[in-house]
Amino acid sequence: MSAITQSQRSLRAGGGTAEDIRDRNLSSLLGWLHRDGALSRAELTRLSGLNRSTVGVVIGDLVALGLVSEGPAVVSGAGRPSSVVVPDAATVAIAVNPEVDALNVGLVGFSGRVLRRARIPWNGPVTVDEVVQAAAAVVAGMTSDTDVPWRIVGAGIAVPGQVRLSDGLVREATHLGWSEEPLAAKMSAALGVPAQAANAAALALRAESAFGAGRDADDLFYIIGGASGIGGGAVIGGRLALGANGHAGEVGHIFVADNGRLCHCGARGCFETEVSRDELLAVLDLPVAQADFLAERLRVSDDPEVAALLDRYRGILRRVVSTVVNLFNPSTIIIGGFLASVIDGVDPADIVGESIRSAQEGLRVLTGSTDVDLLLVGAAELVFSELIASPSVLMGGTQQP
Ligand SMILES: [Zn+2]
């Protein structure tokens, strides 16, 4: 089970009114369909633990809400005929990811499917208002396609910085030059749908946890290196660790070096100031615009300066990974972004080797997705997890005839 399905775990417990039970059952089935895509009635019955007649009623409700459609009953194997239930393909979240060098916008459907995407390169710093206007223009273009009756449930924004989850206020996004910006509120006003924002690395973790390498991991730690620094997060016992203010997982600010470089957070010797993508690009003489070739160039380089830097980076990463293994005892560590290139060809046992031995038992070290859609899928999870938590509340008032 992954963080995205955490609501399903609590669904089986607890009583409440008939209305509560109905809502929980709607959530449960929609959650499985989001996670796995199309499923037969028989599979939904098995996965949800509900009885067949209840599953039939719940599917009827989901069809009435326009969230799923159901095909004719088919026989598969020795079982009785069972119809296939498919999540609605036109129900989408708008996903927005402003980065230092570009704005990424997408329409994302159930099951993390990116149906439309656009990338607008930037030249220099951008304001929140410019990002909001550009995103609204891109979305207007995408949804003008009248062949598809898009039903937009909301918008999710992945921000390289610290974001207050309750209202999507960007507390600080140093690399974008933003501070105390009501990004979600402005985006919501411009797009005309509810909008939420969260830290980009935490959303990349949600995407990995729901659909990627961390899909079946209940105890997972994620570290991702990007253009704007290093972030990450933890899934503990199937739940995403948010922290009191939603800022848990700032692994980039783990202290790694005495007398280290000054970090924008005010401290010295933080992981993300001692290990950076731009330093790797510089030692390889690779322009930022060609950062996509970083992994390949690292692999073929025989420059001793490059080897020495990689050696230093691996030593620091080993210390960071050992720290999180000792703290969280994860079953899975996912290392993504440019950090995946840093550990390319390294024995995973070597990366976790400084943590306590009993915590290393069964520990998997995996490479994260480098898919450009990762952050769009993660941003959309903000919207879909809310929809799945209360489908009838969110869709009841906006249901189309
Ligand atoms: Zn720092």
TrEMBL record:
<dbReference type="InterPro" id="IPR000600">
    <property type="entry name" value="ROK"/>
</dbReference>
<dbReference type="InterPro" id="IPR036388">
    <property type="entry name" value="WH-like_DNA-bd_sf"/>
</dbReference>
<protein>
    <submittedName>
        <fullName>ROK family transcriptional regulator</fullName>
    </submittedName>
</protein>
<dbReference type="InterPro" id="IPR036390">
    <property type="entry name" value="WH_DNA-bd_sf"/>
</dbReference>
<comment type="similarity">
    <text>Belongs to the ROK (NagC/XylR) family.</text>
</comment>
<dbReference type="InterPro" id="IPR043129">
    <property type="entry name" value="ATPase_NBD"/>
</dbReference>
<dbReference type="Pfam" id="PF00480">
    <property type="entry name" value="ROK"/>
</dbReference>
